[in-house]
Amino acid sequence: MSNVLRVSKKVVGIRQTRNRLNAKLLTTENEELETFFSQERVNDKSTTSEIETAYIHDDPQEIFDEDILSSAIGDLNFEEPDSDVEFDDTQSQAAEESDDDSCSTQVPYIHVSSLLKVLHKDAGLTYLPLDSRTLLKSLRGKLLFEDMHPGKYRHFDLEASLVRFLVALQSKGIKIPSEIKLLFNADGLPLSKSGSNEFWPILVRIQGYDFVFAAGIYQGRGKPADVNVYLKFFAADIHQLRRSRLQFEGQTITVSVCGMSSDAPATAYILNIKGHNAFHGCRICTTRGSWTPTISKRTNARSGGRVTFPEINAPLRSDSSFRKRENIQHHNKNQIRSVVEDIIDDLTADVHLDYMHLVCIGCFKKLLNVFFCHPFDNIRLSPASLLAISAFREHVRQYIPSDFARKPRSAKDLPRWKATELRLDLLYLCPVIYKCFITKNSYDHLMLLHVSIRLLLERDSCQADADYANELLRLFVQVSSQLYGPAFVTFNIHSLIHLAKGVKKHGSFEDTSAFCFENKLQVYKNMVRPCGRSLEQLVRRIDQECKISVLSVTSRVSSAAQKPLVLKMLNFCGPILPGLLSGKQYKQLVLENTILTNSLPDNCVIIEGNHVVLIANFVWEYEKLYVIGRRYLHQENYFSYPLPSSNIYEIVVSQLSHTLESFEFCEVKYKCIRIPTFFPETGSYFVSKLLNLNIN
């Protein structure tokens, strides 16, 4: 692709030179200018001959292959213009004069078409199409949609998507599974902040693999009026696959639905039950909420109120009681049964409580709002404390490993924090950042949430630790009303007592969260230009993605042989130890799911014996990989309540050794995040193991 763009740039340069010369010829007949013109023509001719020579080849396909060009263009994030929009010549010229970097992001299809015309006319590549839509094999003509009040719907065949997934597994040498478990999500995606137009995609994730795809997309002004009409095509595909099962190259594969993961409003809509603000809104137990007025000032003035759920020992719902409508107040008055009841086996255990919305956005952000914005002075942090916290967070940014998409932001930006930022804060930063600013009771209360969520997220041990984590969460809910008032225990806080139940059946709720679905929604939103016919644009983009992109599929159950070690960035300046002088040195090690480097922030690991080591170099010697580094000589617990922090691989370290040591790479167990315990730094650091990122 870069070769094509460079050639087109030369062609454009020739044309621009000719235009400049013609303009000068019309304005003057000076003899000196004539000499200049002749020189320019000589240069122009030589440049033209170079380009013509470049195209003298027995088989031009060897230089410009249509499939290669199609694949290269497909990798770019192109946008197709709406057919009603007209583009003038300035846009085409801008595309012709752009360099490779500008073409690598957000290149409109009109620019690609202009490039193809130049290559067709000036470079003689007549076998290339003249339009980008032909090159990318876009869907042409009028697309067919299902009318679905108050909008329209496009369905994607579920079996075809699964076959495409299996083909990708086969091409990567990953074993074809005998059973495919599907987790689905349905949620709204506003297309703009100023309008009511929105998407409602039905997204599906194949459990055990990082692969999310769309089974159907609705677009309209508001959500679909009838949830059963919205889901009927998806439900029909599920029933068909259950009956006949999936056939792939002589192998019969069982397909099942392991659950649904959405936020509380979307779940209530899909199941046709009362929302989270209703008195009978809890989906797991039969507790009845109570109305609690909101106290806004010390004068006990009431300003509205909310439904709270202080009871933690109410009887649990069962799948049978849900289907029989034994608690009729929990269901909507229209008594319409959702088609989801026919495709999900257990409507209480398999409709997951999503920890992204429930814990990160719902509970932890609510707790931070208490610290930052509570109306009572004895709870709210002072402005000086907030400034100190913000400065600490800004300083910690340099210590955040590359595994995290977002770095910490100032406390004043809390209303705009994303779920990934809240997750980073809850799982790794909160034990350190808030310890010196909140009271001991509040800190111990925060540690109950921090420890329990870490226990429930760890794939290797979450089911064994589920009962203990459940005790911590129940205690967290009980203490919440004592510390922050009864109005604090709303639906999200109450639902914490039910998290461990889902983990005991399905494993870590990292595998049932909505993070992957939210990421896919953002991808779809970026595919659409704000020029009308959004659903048509998205359907064409998804179709092109299926045709020309290489499907990225990874498996969490792959063997060690499928996890290659890639060493990068040769290092010639050490440090090195005497026994490894003849080995090759490297600065970076790329693994399947993370990277390790010899510099901040990706250089902290835990090795055998639970020693914390800072990596200084990688050496390949004697067909083995060695890690050279320095270990911390002093390690201790950072907190002791509700358990010693070292039990969950969180410790405070100090006294970095001056002596270099070498370890075989197989001794490295975990990658860690390392942040200073104080700001300004004092030489001690808080080290926390990255969850579900085991190295060996």
From TrEMBL:
This is DUF4218 domain-containing protein. Residues 83-103 are annotated as: Disordered. PANTHER family: AGAP000105-PA, PROTEIN, PUTATIVE-RELATED.
